[in-house]
Write a structure and sequence with these properties.
Number of domains: 6
CATH topology of the largest domain: BirA Bifunctional Protein, domain 2
Main location: cytoplasm
Structural class: alpha+beta
Largest sheet: 7 strands, mixed
CATH architecture of the largest domain: 2-Layer Sandwich
Cofactor: Mg(2+)
Oligomer: single chain
Family: Belongs to the phenylalanyl-tRNA synthetase beta subunit family. Type 1 subfamily.
Strand content: 25-35%
Helix content: 10-25%
GO cellular component, one term: phenylalanine-tRNA ligase complex
Strand order of the largest sheet: 27-30-31-35-34-33-32
Catalytic activity: tRNA(Phe) + L-phenylalanine + ATP = L-phenylalanyl-tRNA(Phe) + AMP + diphosphate + H(+)
Distance between the termini: 86 Å
């Protein structure tokens, strides 16, 4: 929110530079994004008066103007604005001047006619298009008649002011107004803001004669209305327009501008209805009905949800409560009677309504953060009196109330000992009392207990901890002494689970994969891919985009999106892994999903890029990725046999090149090639992936002693070639060899696979090297031969192998 420095000075005596004031606000209250002066960067822009003009001889829309800029001679300027007019005072950029976007204006010729500068529109000197009043949006701006010719224009249109852009946190909604900031600065600088409170001039006719309110206090705990008759709709005075456009609000007319002004000043959203557009005289605040629609002021027709709250007359909705008014009750040039609404709506309902309709208005922002419940009537009175003064309206007597309650001050007890203990200070009772008084709080002291009375304008304060924060920030965070904590300390360290997770990342990076971090949110379709277990989806109630509606139940889909991003940019060799959580729900009624740590990898193209080899021949395959997974599990020291069992239960995976990963019969993940149709849908090249349940791996027993001394005795090898059926797998052969290999069998290595000429149909030839080693002694040939013969016999008997 942009706060005007000069506006603040109307209520406080701020003898401090705007930049210093902004720093004080940031150190004590809320963040400040920037301090800007609208005229910064502009140069040589002055007040001019059009003394005469004539059509350009070579154009049907240009005019040659003679402009008085306070010099001895008139200055000739060519202007193409449709509203240029003799006798008007205008904004003139002189030759050599700088206007918006650092554009330099030079003396030039326009179709052969000399032009000494430029007559400017507001947006040409830096005003945002959406704050320029509509009457000036298509042409040049006319300055007030009392503007001094030749003087800089900035003071006449508020560009010499400083604007402090505060970034208000949700807990400090009171700072979303000039009064709120003024009260806070008053506390900081120990001043009492000189805030003006309105006195309403009413006529005898009662508001209750014109309107009755029927309000559901569950949606609007406070709802009040005033009627102002015989208003004259016209442009607001310049001082009001300046305050609005400096706050980033476009001036509309003297009635609508008053409601926006009150919002900026008090922080209380108001809405002005054209009373004559009501059906009947009963106004209702209620939930919307099924099938109802409302065209809002932005001219969008909206289907209302039964959870939306609306303001309605006897026939139809006329406003989306607390968010935006309806087009069917807007103030226009024909309006003569205005109904002013001032209310407090339930914040959660406003937030959800605004999200449903993607209407994040200033009013909704205020209601979501809360408003001063004790200031509803004051803001309503101020608006009615302003419409009397600026629109010649007649204010009907009294306020019609649809819902209300007694708004009371918050009373909180806190002790001096507690304050000094928490803040680490040695403040005296007088100092703390003075701080509470600076804040505008009532305070009384009994022994060392403060009874603090907090007014409704600070609705964020409810408990002693809130008072502690107020004391700290007004006393000054920089003044609080720096102290070291006392008492015993403990050495911080990672848990076993954290160590293993970090080790997992290091292992996969060492194996050639790069870490990726994907969104936990995805589409419902992608969330349900690559499912390792049955689960219900977890959908967001209010997703930000259509691509992020559902919590993921796998990691692979995110990795495939990353590969697709790279492939689309001609990066073909991609090797990624991701460690993160997936979200499962056992039933649709489960409120919160369970979170499970997974780790996954995806490789497309070459894992090891070798420019001297054929890229296609060197592309990653199932066995290369399987080796990565095996080495990863080995380095994790999982105790148990690892099996890879062919499966076709994943529809997104290639049915002939996919395997479940089992450890001691427990399924911990899967590995394989992405199905060609799935790859096509993601627009990626041939890709191999794996995904593991990391929580399951972390819970499995580990090999505690992984160190093995290097034997000083020589190893002995034996080779064996087998002719077996193609249905016999390498895993089955290894299992039999390891089972009967004896105590000294150290390793088994498959070094040849052959199926072709001289091998019968349905058969394959596999050749293995068996390595034997005794860590305590030198092996003899007899010992090795006995063990080797047992292996051969077992292979023949159990697998029907033929020894070659």
């Amino acid at each position: 929110m942009k706060i005007s420095y000069s506006w603040l000075n109307e209520y406080l005596d701020l003898k401090v530079a705007p930049q210093d004031l902004a720093e004080k606000i940031e150190r004590s209250s809320v963040e400040v994004d920037e301090v800007v002066q609208p005229s910064a960067g502009l140069k040589k822009i002055v007040v001019g008066k059009i003394m005469s003009m004539a059509p350009h001889p070579d154009s049907d829309h240009l005019n040659v103007c003679q402009v008085d800029i306070g010099e001895d001679e008139l200055s000739q300027i060519v202007c193409g604005a449709p509203n240029v007019e003799t006798g008007k005072k205008v904004i003139v950029a002189l030759p050599g001047s700088r206007i918006a976007n650092n554009v330099k204006i030079k003396r030039s010729k326009m179709r052969g006619v000399v032009s000494n500068g430029m007559i400017c529109a507001l947006d040409e000197i830096g005003f945002e298009k959406d704050v320029v009043p509509k009457e000036w949006s298509e042409g040049i701006y006319f300055l007030p008649e009392d503007a001094e010719i030749g003087a800089p224009v900035y003071s006449y249109i508020g560009m010499d002011d400083y604007l402090i852009d505060v970034d208000v946190t949700p807990n400090r909604g009171d700072m979303l107004s000039v009064y709120g900031v003024a009260n806070d600065l008053g506390a900081i600088y120990n001043q009492t803001p000189n805030l003006n409170h309105p006195s309403v001039e009413e006529i005898d006719t009662a508001t209750s004669d014109k309107v009755q309110l029927d309000v559901d206090d569950q949606v609007a705990p406070i709802y009040k209305m005033r009627i102002v008759e015989n208003v004259k709709i016209q442009a607001s005075p310049l001082w009001l327009q300046i305050k609005l456009w400096n706050a980033g609000v476009r001036p509309i007319n003297n009635v609508v501008d008053v409601t926006n002004y009150i919002l900026i000043k008090y922080g209380q959203p108001l809405h002005a209805f054209d009373y004559n557009k009501f059906d009947g005289n009963v106004v209702t605040a209620r939930y919307a009905k099924a099938g109802e629609t409302l065209t809002t002021l932005d001219e969008e027709e909206r289907e209302l949800d039964p959870h939306d709250i609306v303001i309605a007359d006897s026939q139809k909705p006329i406003a989306l409560a607390g968010v935006m008014g309806g087009l069917n009750s807007e103030i226009d040039d024909q309006t003569t009677t205005v109904a002013i609404e001032s209310a407090v709506f339930t914040p959660t309902l406003i937030r959800k309504t605004a999200q449903r309709h993607n209407l994040h208005t200033s009013a909704a922002q205020h209601f979501e953060r809360g408003v001063n419940r004790g200031g509803v009537e004051e803001a309503l009175d101020a608006a009615a009196q302003m419409m009397h003064e600026l629109a010649n309206g007649e204010v009907l007597s009294g306020i019609e109330t649809g819902a209300s309650y007694d708004v009371k001050d918050e009373v909180i007890d806190i002790t001096l000992t507690r304050i000094n203990h928490v803040l680490g200070t040695t403040l005296t009772a007088d100092q703390v009392t003075q701080i509470f008084k600076q804040l505008g709080f009532g305070v009384s002291l009994s022994d060392e207990t403060f009874k603090v009375t907090v007014p409704p304008r600070r609705w964020d304060i409810h408990i002693p901890a809130d008072l502690l924060e107020e004391v700290a920030r007004i006393y000054g965070y920089d003044e609080i002494p720096a102290t070291l904590p006392s008492g015993p300390t403990t050495l911080g360290k990672l848990t076993e689970k954290q160590v293993l997770i970090r080790s997992s990342r290091q292992l996969l990076e060492a194996l050639g994969l790069n870490q990726a971090i994907s969104y936990s949110l995805t589409t419902a379709d992608k969330a349900g891919h690559f499912m390792m277990r049955d689960s219900h989806e977890t959908e967001l109630s209010w997703p930000m985009t259509a691509d992020h509606t559902t919590l993921r139940m796998n990691l692979i889909s995110g990795l495939l999106d990353d590969i697709a991003y790279n492939n689309a940019r001609h990066v073909k060799d991609v090797a990624l892994y991701e460690q993160g959580r997936v979200f499962y729900k056992d039933s649709a009624d489960q409120v919160r999903p369970s979170e499970v740590e997974h780790i996954a990898g995806a490789v497309s193209g070459q894992l090891v890029v070798d420019p001297l080899r054929n890229a296609k021949a060197n592309a990653v395959d199932f066995y290369q990725l399987k080796g990565i997974v095996e080495q990863y599990l080995t380095n994790l020291a999982i105790k148990g046999d690892v099996e890879f069992v062919a499966t076709d239960r994943y529809p997104e995976m290639h049915p002939g090149r996919t395997a479940d990963i089992l450890i001691h019969g427990h399924n911990v993940g899967f590995i394989g090639q992405i199905h060609p149709l799935t790859a096509e849908s993601y627009k990626i090249n041939e890709t191999y992936v794996f995904e593991l349940n990391l929580d399951a791996l972390l819970e499995m027993p580990k090999e505690m002693n992984q160190y093995q001394a290097i034997s000083k005795y020589p190893a002995v090898t034996r080779d064996v070639a087998l002719l077996v059926d193609k249905t016999v797998t390498n895993a089955e052969i290894l299992a039999q060899i390891n089972k009967r290999g004896g105590a000294y069998l150290k390793s088994v290595h498959l070094f040849d696979v052959y199926a072709g000429k001289n091998v019968p149909n349905g058969k394959q030839s596999l050749a293995y090297t068996l390595t034997y080693q005794n860590p305590q002694d030198t092996l003899t040939d007899d010992e090795v031969n006995q063990a080797f013969e047992k292996v051969q016999a077992t292979l023949v008997k159990e697998l029907g192998a033929e020894i070659r």
